[in-house]
Amino acid sequence: MPVTDVTTDAESLTMTVVADFAAPIERVWSAYADPRQLERFWGPPGWPATFTAFDHTVGGMAQYTMAGPRGERSSGSWEFLEIDEPRGFAVIDRFVDDEGRPLEGFPSLRMTFSFEEAGDGTRMVTTSHFDSIEALEQVVEMGAIEGTRMAMAQLDAVLQDLRAYAQGKGTRVEELDDTHVRITRLVEGPRELVWRAHHDPDLLRQWMLGPDGWEMTECVVALAPGDRHSTSWAPVGETEGEAFGFEGEALLVEAPRRAVTTERMKGTEGPETLNDLNLYEEDGATLITLLIEYPDKGTRDMILATGMADGMEASYARLERDVLVASGR
């Protein structure tokens, strides 16, 4: 985890975040100076940001919106006060509405970002300055500390070349907390085709089969919020096992970038999970990220113990081999 320390100081009315990255200072600077890179980590998992304005000059403004998995929205703006490339910058950070107007009842704060060389990498120190103890406590109560830790944990993937970060590492499972798991897999192919492979029933039947010896017997895809999805599998030939399936509802669909659905096993009342699929392309390769929210730790552990990750790896390998390669990418 890049974040090494988060402290709050009631006397100085500050919150300070210290993070260390295995990348040169110029590379870390560029991640904060480019809105397309910022979007990949400015916001915790499940709340990706979209920057709609970014005037990276003193006196310039940036505006962003973070979208939650159930359609929630939280917007903010930066007013750039100082820019000292590549050593740091300072902004006024505000909570705003969709038109960029400051929200009443929410604090504005001055944030300073400082980058310094630390061995072979870079240390970042971010200090947020508040006008009152009430404003500091309000931001902390809103989950700023844990949200910052989880957001910064995504920066490692941004700072590295995507293939260097994920190629050859298969399906990776990270337990973010008691109820959230992040699953990542790099596949060689453009994002548009990977998206279509997730939403075209004919393509899904070719690869989303888990271990060999299974077939998909039903495939109903949700293409818009409110649509229902339903998939079923059954063993083939001498393969052992019982038929099973999942169903749920699409909550958010932003082709070809993001899709959020609920999911539960057919014939049961639950437990229900929230599945947040994100696709990011770089240089012809696509990083598939699936953030799963479980109702509790027991459900999380029970599902992970089924060997789910192994089945997903078999499916992703089939996606590359039988769908992406066959298409000529």
TrEMBL record:
Source domain of life: Bacteria
SUPFAM superfamilies: Bet v1-like
InterPro entries: ASHA1/2-like_C, START-like_dom_sf
Activator of Hsp90 ATPase homologue 1/2-like C-terminal domain segment(s): 22-159, 190-320
Family: Belongs to the AHA1 family.
Name of the protein this chain belongs to: Activator of Hsp90 ATPase homologue 1/2-like C-terminal domain-containing protein
Organism: Microbacterium barkeri
